[in-house]
Amino acid sequence: ILIMMTFGATELSAQVRIELNQIRQKKGSVRIALFDTPEDYLLHPVDSLSVEADAKQVTADFDNLLPGRYAFALFHDLNGNGELDRNWLGIPSEPFAFSNNAMGRFSEPSWEQASFELKEGQLTQQIQLKHLSF
Prior knowledge:
1 helix, 3% helix, 8 strands, mainly beta, 5-stranded antiparallel β-sheet, single chain
């Protein structure tokens, strides 16, 4: 006898839309990593994506997410090497940003600064790329 059980599917109904502004060079791609725990923040993304940087503003969507707390980090990969390039002092030489437009003092922002609450529906964050030049 085969007994089939049907479980109600949990509908993933949250989305993060990132509207990224101030793209100065229309080349390369914007690489975005999404994190869902403070322990994994900046180490192990729960999801990631890459969008072509072919306009002064680009939009990226993380779909089908569970409501919860998230943070993201991104950078404009100008040379296509898949890494955030840094100068000899360790300062990023490619544009970057974090969720909430958070900035740390002399380092990346903390989980508390960058994280946000995602509820059902869509959350849009308008993010400004940081262009450091030293």
